[in-house]
Design a protein that fits this description.
This protein has 3 domains: about 90 residues, Periplasmic binding protein-like II (D-Maltodextrin-Binding Protein, domain 2), CATH 3.40.190; about 80 residues, 3-Layer(aba) Sandwich (D-Maltodextrin-Binding Protein, domain 2), CATH 3.40.190; about 80 residues, 2-Layer Sandwich (Alpha-Beta Plaits), CATH 3.30.70.260. It is built from 9 helices and 15 strands. Strands 1, 2, 3, 4, 5 and 11 form a 6-stranded mixed beta sheet that branches. Strands 8-7-9-6-10 form a 5-stranded mixed beta sheet. The protein has a 4-stranded antiparallel beta sheet with strand order 13-14-12-15, with helices on both faces. A hairpin with a 7-residue loop joins strand 13 and strand 14.
């Protein structure tokens, strides 16, 4: 089984892929999320792993758009705690460092630590890629922010532990496919949806009441501009439920109240 991830060995996406699919899966490294999508669509990989939201930094809105634009299916999800470590080549001290580099999301999650560091901050495409670069080139004036696993793989020293601003830092990843569910026999209790509603008073409230009346719990709602129509928005919604019949009935009525309705995925929640 081939799994496309954004990043390389030791990245958080790599860890999620192995947790979800097992260590025997084949990981296909991609430097961008666009490359992950292409790998899935072209059939190079069977599935993909994509970060979608973080408890500190919020939603990765461009990733919602990628899933939408490319008609990908969400077949599962995984949550992991993100603990960022500051790492350097062996023997390097913090006073030797001139630059700190990592993925933009990791830098954002470590904002408080970095603003007091007096170092040059550089963005890179992947957390583990920076760790690999330091190791390969024996860079003694650069530090990476990455996972403990990355430090182990690339032989780096961790000089500051758990530097994320909020210590309870969790990221949600979605499992993507070009087709529907990986296992149709798994009990499904969560759905990811997209709605475009009529631009009229109470249109969103009406939909929310439909969910409420059918015992459907909204766990997320994210508005994203409809690019082709200024000041019009689509709503990306995650819902959970205990009875599939409640969900089916709710969706039937939501469709009647929507200009556009899409179901990105019906899958098992990792939080229930």
């Amino acid at each position: 089984m081939k799994i496309a991830i954004q990043g390389i060995s030791g990245s958080y996406h790599d860890q999620v892929a192995k947790i979800y699919f097992g260590n025997e899966c084949t990981i296909l490294d991609c430097m961008t999320f666009d490359d992950v999508v292409l790998s899935i669509k072209d059939g190079v990989s069977d599935f993909g792993v994509m970060a979608i939201e973080n408890s500190i930094a919020g939603s990765l809105i461009p990733n919602y758009s990628l899933i939408d634009k490319n008609n990908l299916k969400i077949i599962g999800e995984s949550y992991i705690n993100i603990n960022h470590q500051l790492m350097v080549a062996p023997g390097v001290k913090i006073d030797d460092i001139k630059t700190i580099s990592s993925h933009p999301m990791a830098l954002l999650q470590c904002k408080d630590f970095l603003k007091n560091s007096n170092k040059l901050i550089l963005e890179d495409k992947d957390t583990a890629e920076v760790a690999k670069k330091i190791s390969k080139n024996n860079l003694t004036d650069m530090a990476a922010i990455a996972s403990k696993k990355a430090a182990e793989i690339y032989g780096l020293d961790i000089i500051e532990k758990n530097i994320q601003t909020i210590k309870n830092n969790e990221t949600r990843f979605v499992i993507l496919s070009a087709e529907d569910s990986l296992n149709s026999n798994i009990e499904k209790n969560k759905a990811s949806l997209k709605l475009i509603l009529n631009h009229s008073n109470g249109s969103l409230a009406k939909v929310l009441n439909i969910f409420n009346d059918n015992n459907i719990n909204l766990t997320k709602i994210q508005s994203i501009p409809v690019i082709e129509t200024p000041w019009k928005y689509s709503f990306f919604i995650d819902v959970t439920f205990t009875n599939i019949n409640d969900y089916t009935n709710a969706i039937k009525n939501v469709k009647l109240s929507s200009e556009l309705f899409m179901e990105f995925g019906l899958y098992k929640s990792e939080k229930l």
